[in-house]
Amino acid sequence: MYNFLKYGGCCYICSSPCSFISNKALCDENRVQIFRLLQNGEKCACKLLEAMQCTQPTLSHHMKILCDSGLVVGRKEGKWMYYSISAEGTEIAVNALHELTKVSDSGECCCK
């Protein structure tokens, strides 16, 4: 189970787990770049570090936010961490975005 509940449980917009943390995860251009690097499959942290041209603590900070959001999962093998995109986490984020952007057919004003 991802850390969605750690950040406040369910979203007040829809019934799916809260997605504000996944939105935060993709609001930073460095994390978006990391996410794009992971689109080609699992990557070792050393390869991400090389591609990002940043310090290890900076990469670690970004990876913590991405992993806490549930969009990325990490696994340790020996002394190295390997990261990949989480299908379950991205499905939750996509569903939450779909709920947030759904247009009501009722024609009623949401401000009432």
Would you write up a description of this structure?
With 112 residues, the chain is an alpha+beta fold. The protein contains five helices and three strands. The protein starts with 19 loop residues before the first helix and ends in an 11-residue tail after the last helix. Residues 1-17 have low confidence and may be disordered.
Shape: elongated
Q: What's the count of strands?
A: 3
Which assembly state applies to the chains in this document? Answer: single chain
- What's the CATH first level of the domain at 23-89? Mainly Alpha
Spatially, the strands of the biggest sheet line up as 1-3-2
Question: How is the secondary structure organized here?
Answer:
Elements (H helix, E strand, L loop, with lengths): L19 H6 L3 H10 L4 E2 H8 L3 H14 L2 E6 L2 E6 L1 H15 L11
Antiparallel strand pairs: 1-3, 2-3
Keywords, separated by commas or semicolons:
3-stranded antiparallel beta sheet; Arc Repressor Mutant, subunit A; 5 helices; disordered N terminus; 112 residues; alpha+beta; elongated; 47% helix
